[in-house]
């Protein structure tokens, strides 16, 4: 069996690529992105007002407001453009045993995560109209005060129904996938 170029050292001997795709990277303004964006603009606007008022007093004290102004703009633009940017630098691959999510982001570098797809994998699909999200794993992470769990999957893909069917077929097969 021939393996796709670049996958020789990653895939198992009997592993085959069934599907590859990328999430849609379009900017979508939703209530979930609009609230933090508005807060960020308000924060930046207040910092700008403060800097103008402080500059009237003379000196360089007004420059202390620059960090707050930058944080406000970061919140505003990150809420709207953060996920689309991440999606434009993400690639998905599904094999007969695992699902892979590859990212190449500034400051984080290239990352490849694999998730076993077997009879114990939680599988769900959210149909979002033109796009779908197929979730197939969970990750637990710690915050300052508690432990949280997030769903992992292929987000904003155009052929979500096809990918969901492929995963159901893998999950229902008798051969459980490797642990990663």
TrEMBL record:
This is Aspartate carbamoyltransferase catalytic subunit. The chain crosses the membrane at residues 32-53, 59-81. Keywords: Membrane, Transmembrane, Transmembrane helix.
């Amino acid at each position: 069996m021939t393996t796709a170029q670049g996958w020789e050292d990653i895939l198992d001997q009997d592993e085959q690529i069934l599907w590859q795709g990328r999430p849609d990277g379009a900017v979508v303004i939703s209530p979930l992105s609009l609230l933090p964006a508005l807060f960020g603009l308000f924060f930046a606007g207040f910092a700008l007002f403060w800097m103008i008022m402080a500059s009237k007093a003379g000196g360089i004290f007004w420059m202390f407001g620059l960090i707050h102004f930058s944080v406000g703009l970061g919140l505003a633009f990150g809420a709207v453009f953060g996920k689309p940017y991440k999606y434009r630098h993400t690639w998905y691959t599904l094999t007969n045993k695992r699902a892979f999510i590859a990212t190449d982001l500034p400051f984080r570098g290239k990352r490849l995560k694999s998730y076993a797809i077997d009879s114990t994998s939680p599988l769900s699909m959210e149909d979002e109209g033109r796009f779908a999200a197929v979730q197939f794993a969970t990750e637990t992470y710690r915050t300052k005060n508690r432990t949280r769990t997030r769903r992992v999957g292929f987000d904003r893909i155009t052929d979500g129904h096809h990918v969901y069917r492929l995963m159901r077929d893998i999950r229902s097969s008798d051969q459980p996938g490797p642990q990663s």
